[in-house]
Structures are given as C-alpha cells and as structure tokens.
Amino acid sequence: MKLALLSGEYSVCGLPAGSAVLVPPGPAELYGVIVTVDEVSVVCAAGEEPEGAKVESGWSALRVVGQLDFSLVGILSALTAPLAEAGVSVFALSTFDTDYLLVRTADLPRAVEALRARGYTI
Fold it and tell me: What b/e sequence results for 108-117 when a residue is b if at least 16 CB atoms lie within 10 Å of its CB, and e otherwise?
C-alpha cells in the first residue's frame, strides 16, 4: 500500500457541541469537520484554527493513495499497529474514498520508518 505525505503541518481542534460547521478558509489539502452530539472537531492547516477552539498543533498527515473499497477489512488496524509498536500516537480520519493518519510532526521520522519496515511505500 502506498501513502502520501501531505505538505505542511496540521492542527486538531475541538469546539463545543452546536458550534457552527466551518468551511475551509481557502483551498486545503486536508480540512475535516466532524460533528457529534458532544462536540465539533476540526482538522485544519496550522494557522487556520477556528477562533475559540481547543487546539492540538504540530501534526503531519499521511494519506492512503487511491480509493479504498468499503468491503476491505482492517485497513486502519494494519496502518496503526506498526505505529503503536513504535510508540507513535495517531489521529485517524476517513473520507468516502480513503483514510488519513495524522502523527505528531516530531514523531514523523519514526512513523515513516515503522511503516516502511512493514512494506508501505511513502
């Protein structure tokens, strides 16, 4: 499986439940909004965090290249297991077509090494 490293750094942000759903301030390689009854989470480029949000910054993003069929089983598990073994924290999110893994930028070299050791191309 091939992974692509997205450019730049990202932030994971938390807003209170019921906060307005935000749109990206401009073109974005990755911008995610997850709304639940308990919270609103936003993944955005560093520096574009919503006002008033709790912010965890300093993340790098990896994207699974290509479309993933919904019948596939264990994709996230196969990606996160080597990272867990390497002690790398992960924030995962999925779109209709593929999966994204965010890892702390400081841990990116260790994450890439662990994934390559399992046969992933980055």
Answer: beebbebbee
